Amino acid sequence: MSADSMPGHEFGQPDAARTDWIDRDFARMPAGARQALILDVIATNGFLSVSKFAGDLGVSEMTIRRDLVVLAERGLLARTHGGAVSSAVNPREIFDAEEPAFKSRRHRNAREKSAIATAAAALIGPGETIGIDVGTSTLTLAEAVVGRADLRVFTNSLRAAMMLSASKSPVYVLGGEVRNPEQSVVGSRAVGELQNYNIDRVFIGVSGLIEAGFFDYSVEDTEVKRAFIARADRVVILCDSSKFDHRSLARVCELSGADILVTDAPPPPHLARALDAAGIEVVVAGREHHQIE
Predict the structure, then answer these.
(1) Among 97, 146, 206, 231, which is most buried by a count of CB atoms within 10 Å?
(2) Distance between CA atoms of residues 214 and 222, nearest Å
(3) Alpha carbon separation from 127 to 124, 150, 200, 201 (Å, rounded)
(4) Integer Cα distance of 55 and 130 in angstroms
(5) Do domains 3-86 and 102-284 have the same CATH topology?
(6) What are the residue ranges spanned by the domains of the chain?
């Protein structure tokens, strides 16, 4: 049974002819079929949230946790707090289970993030409409463009919006639920609102980069990141080198989902090969002069 035939955000919407069947039979889905669907969702999204998956199927969270135990014992996935991820982990990869406090992340690798922000800001052409995602690197970018008066900025970061309030460029904050302590705006309203806008260039912060893609700590923030990516002509990932070979709960997108990676050091050979194969331009801050596209 494919994930596309299931209801809910992760699975797509069923056609009307199948709605009655779904409502009647989902709760009675055999454990084997349910477990196969779990593996399908993880293979597609990089993670699974117990609470959301249980809600979409109309079963208890305990039922899904029991399924995860069975699959983990078979070596088919790795359990995390609140969900599960793929067990197909490269030995050099590090899984970051917990999101560090914003303040500590803000000061970590601050010099590198400043260089990344300067290089990223140089990519923005005159009069562009840009998106600025939530995170410490993207907040540093907001600081770097606060002097511009020719931009239109959309953001789901309350911190970035406050930073940019001193700018002469108009700033638009997405509506939705505020997630603390990140002070990000998340939820279906924020995701839906982005469908109304066309963005020239979006800047996305991530918590990790591996050959399988870009990752973030928060499922909720990741949903908005994906919506930003879907509406942008150019996708720029901001990622300092300390995040190479790190992954976390939620996969933002595959490598091919981005156009440019701005970082502070050349990626190691295995990541460089994967990025090149995905067609991503790698901008190493301070190394080269890059023309505005």
Answers:
(1) 206
(2) 10
(3) 9, 5, 10, 11
(4) 35
(5) no
(6) 3-86, 102-284
Over residues 213-244, the pLDDT tens digits come to 999 988 899 999 999 999 999 999 999 999 99
235 bridge partner residues: 202
**pLDDT tens, residue by residue, 87-124:** 665 656 776 666 656 556 655 667 899 999 999 999 99
What pLDDT is attached to residue 26?
54
Kindly report the three-state secondary structure assignment for every residue of 67-133: HHHHHHHCCCEEEECCEEEECCCCCCCEECCCCCCHHHHHHCCHHHHHHHHHHHHCCCCCCCEEEEC
**CATH number, domain 102-284:** 3.40.50.1360
- The answer to whether residues 67 and 90 touch, using CB atoms and an 8 Å cutoff, is no
Record the pTM: 0.69
Name the residue type at position 42. I
Domain 3-86 indexed as CATH 1.10.10.10 = yes
Q: Residues in the chain with pLDDT < 50?
A: 1-24, 289-293
